[in-house]
Design a protein that fits this description.
The protein is α+β, with helices and mostly antiparallel strands and 284 residues long. Helix content is 45%, strand content 19%. It has helices at 3-11, 14-26, 31-38, 42-54, 71-92, 94-99, 107-110, 134-141, 156-166, 177-186, 188-196, 242-257, and strands at 58-61, 66-69, 120-122, 145-150, 170-176, 200-205, 213-217, 221-224, 236-239, 260-264, 271-276. The strands form 2 sheets. A 9-stranded mixed beta sheet has the order 3-9-8-7-4-5-6-10-11, sandwiched between helices. A hairpin with a 3-residue loop joins β7 and β8. The longest helix is centred in the first third of the chain and has 22 residues, at 71-92.
């Protein structure tokens, strides 16, 4: 078998590729269902189905009258979808991705960066480079569940946390130890209040955190990255897609699981540091 022939069979026909992706995402379907979803005629579709059957990428169940991916077909198409997702996000925001330092993202999450589909870029005003973009702030304030991982000191964060708690939102935050200590030094009363609030948890990580900052809520995911020269230009990458939110929650869970929770002891009123936080990001 010539691998190049198989590659041509998959990629040289948009119809064949769409059939494979459809069956991967939605499972077995009969011919009429495939036609309706892909909006194609039987005469255009059947020759492509036959070629996929010839390569054993599909199987046909005569009792159920449905087509489905073969076991090997499913393995191949899963990788194809990952590849296409990465290509698509790169094409959507080529200049942004080309200049970002992706090494800041843990490798196991970087491999799945194709999940960040349909992202928008919020470009910072040069006069407000170290302030959150107004669109991000508006979205954040209207969120009910917020997760944040950060290795940067952003004073505006304190007022945003206060507003979210006023709105009865739930917050889970992971800071590097250095940044947490900076916040505690500059905003001691506010952070002691945050630490004792029932709707908020704060954890600290003694080691490195990358990316620069991640925020994921019940409605969106936002990301800030350094460029390849180690500079921060304030650009916010934001997505409202379900896959992007899932990716963000998993990255938060990763850092949360290797961080230690900080809290105020109810009896002594002193700040304490617990063991590693094993809480998963399953609040929404």
């Amino acid at each position: 078998m010539d691998p190049s022939c198989l590659i041509k069979t998959i990629f040289f026909s948009e119809k064949r590729k769409n059939v494979l992706i459809l069956l991967l995402k939605e499972g077995p379907k009969n011919i009429d269902e495939i036609k309706d979803v892909l909006d194609v005629s039987s005469s255009a579709l059947m020759p492509q189905i036959k070629k996929l059957l010839k390569w054993d990428l599909l199987t046909y169940d005569p009792e159920e009258d449905v087509y489905k991916l073969s076991d090997m077909g499913a393995l191949i198409v899963e990788k194809i979808e990952e590849f296409l997702n990465i290509v698509n996000i790169y094409a959507e925001n080529h200049e942004y991705w080309e200049t970002r330092d992706l090494s800041e993202i843990p490798y196991h999450m970087r491999k799945r960066i194709g999940n960040l589909t349909h992202c928008e870029l919020l470009v910072a005003d040069r006069d407000c480079l170290f302030e959150f973009h107004p669109t991000f702030v508006d979205n954040l304030i209207n969120s009910k569940h917020v997760m944040m991982v950060s290795s940067t000191f952003q004073p505006q964060t304190t007022s945003l946390f206060s507003k979210l708690l006023e709105n009865d939102s739930k917050l889970s935050v992971v800071f590097t130890e250095l940044i947490f200590n900076k916040f505690l030094e500059d905003f001691p009363e506010q952070f002691r209040y945050f630490l004792s609030h029932e709707n908020m948890s704060i954890s600290i990580r003694s080691g490195h955190i990358g990316p620069l900052t991640l925020v994921v809520t019940d409605a969106f995911m936002a990301l800030w990255l350094f460029d390849k020269k180690g500079r921060f230009d304030g650009t916010t990458l934001i997505s409202y897609e379900k896959n992007a939110l899932k990716w963000g929650r998993e990255l938060f869970t990763y850092y949360s699981s290797i961080s230690k929770m900080v809290y105020i002891d109810h009896d002594t009123k002193k700040m304490e540091v617990a063991g590693y936080n094993i809480t998963k990001a399953n609040i929404f």
